[in-house]
Amino acid sequence: MRTTQQFSITLPNEMADAVKAKVAAGEYATESEVIRDGLRTLLARDRAVEAWLREQVVPAALALKADPARALSVDQVRERLATRRQGRTSAKKT
């Protein structure tokens, strides 16, 4: 039983050139390997986003729903971000 399928795809010239350049540089043996690696990376990113949503975003949303007093106002968020930004800027100067 065959474990692969053949596809015919159309890419914009810029993407096609990038695929060919990867093969020409010796990073991959074939154009198919470039595409397969790109799809593996896309699938890994999708899994990472799903895990982040499941493990961090959903629990945070549920905690906020259970205790709305934990929420920050827009002004509080801006103030915290500004403080962090200032801390990073002063840390770079030293």
UniProtKB/TrEMBL annotation:
Q: Where do transmembrane segments lie in this chain?
A: none
| Keyword terms, alphabetized | Toxin-antitoxin system
**Which InterPro entries does the entry link to?**
ParD (IPR022789), ParD_sf (IPR038296), Ribbon_hlx_hlx (IPR010985)
Task: Show the Gene3D superfamilies listed in the entry.
Answer: Antitoxin ParD1-like
Has the keyword Zinc been applied to this entry?
no
**Signal sequence range:** none
Q: What Pfam families does this protein's entry cite? A: ParD_antitoxin (PF03693)
Identify its protein family: Belongs to the ParD antitoxin family.
What role is this protein assigned?
Antitoxin component of a type II toxin-antitoxin (TA) system. Neutralizes the effect of toxin ParE.
Protein name, entry field: Antitoxin ParD
**Organism for this UniProt entry:** Luteimonas endophytica
Give the lineage: Bacteria, Pseudomonadati, Pseudomonadota, Gammaproteobacteria, Lysobacterales
